[in-house]
Automatic annotation (TrEMBL):
Family annotation (PROSITE patterns): HTH_ASNC_1, HTH_ASNC_2
GO cellular component: cytosol
Protein origin, superkingdom: Bacteria
Residue intervals of the HTH asnC-type domain: 5-66
A GO molecular-function annotation: sequence-specific DNA binding
One Gene Ontology biological process: regulation of DNA-templated transcription
This protein's UniProt keywords: DNA-binding, Transcription, Transcription regulation
Descriptive protein name: ArsR family transcriptional regulator
InterPro entries reported for this sequence: ArsR-like_HTH (IPR011991), AsnC-type_HTH_dom (IPR000485), Dimeric_a/b-barrel (IPR011008), Tscrpt_reg_AsnC-like (IPR019888), Tscrpt_reg_AsnC/Lrp_C (IPR019887), Tscrpt_reg_HTH_AsnC-type_CS (IPR019885), WH-like_DNA-bd_sf (IPR036388), WH_DNA-bd_sf (IPR036390)
UniProt lineage: Bacteria, Pseudomonadati, Pseudomonadota, Alphaproteobacteria, Rhodobacterales
Length: 153
C-alpha cells in the first residue's frame, strides 16, 4: 500500500536520503518548517514503514572489496523447499548485497561484493554446495558508473 505523502513529507525524505545524520534544525530549515513538525512527520513516516531505518554508507573499496559481480542464476528447481533453502543460503552470505527474483529467462540475479576473482570462486563453490543450481553466469563489473540509494521522491 502506498503511503500518502505531501510535498513537505517528500522534501523531508529527500533531505534524509541526502544525509540522515543532519540535525532536525537543518532539515526543518531546508524544507521551510520548524523542528517539532518535522520530527512528527519523520516519526509518522517511520510508523508507516516509509522510513525503514538509518544506516551508514561505506565505500566497499576502502574495505578491500574491489570486485563487484552480477550473478545470473537459472534453476530447474521451483518447489517451496528449494526456494526456502536458496533464500536461507543467500541470507547467510554477507557477500550478497542484493538478490532479485526475475521474470524471463533468468530466475535470479545477485549483486556480490568480494575482494577479487578468487574470493568470488570461494563464494560460488559454497553456493553450489548448498543448493542445486542449473546454470550460473557471473559478470564482473569493470566500472561502477552510478550507484545511489536515493529514491526519486
Amino acid at each position: 500500500m502506498t503511503a500518502k505523502l505531501d510535498k513537505t513529507d517528500r522534501a523531508i525524505l529527500a533531505q534524509l536520503q541526502r544525509d540522515a545524520a543532519q540535525s532536525l534544525d537543518d532539515i526543518a530549515r531546508a524544507v521551510g518548517s520548524s523542528k517539532t513538525p518535522v520530527w512528527n512527520r519523520i516519526r509518522k513516516m517511520r510508523e508507516l514503514g516509509v522510513i525503514k531505518g538509518q544506516t551508514a554508507l561505506v565505500d566497499p573499496e576502502a574495505l578491500g572489496l574491489e570486485a563487484c559481480f552480477f550473478v545470473l542464476i537459472r534453476t530447474s528447481e521451483h518447489d517451496r523447499e528449494w526456494q526456502r533453502k536458496f533464500l536461507e543460503t543467500l541470507q547467510a552470505r554477507p557477500e550478497v548485497m542484493e538478490a532479485h527474483r526475475l521474470a524471463g529467462d533468468i530466475d535470479y540475479i545477485l549483486k556480490v561484493r568480494v575482494e577479487n576473482a578468487r574470493a568470488y570462486d570461494v563464494f560460488y563453490q559454497a553456493l553450489i554446495a548448498e543448493v542445486k543450481i542449473h546454470n550460473v553466469t557471473a559478470l564482473l563489473s569493470m566500472e561502477e558508473i552510478k550507484s545511489t540509494t536515493i529514491l526519486p521522491v
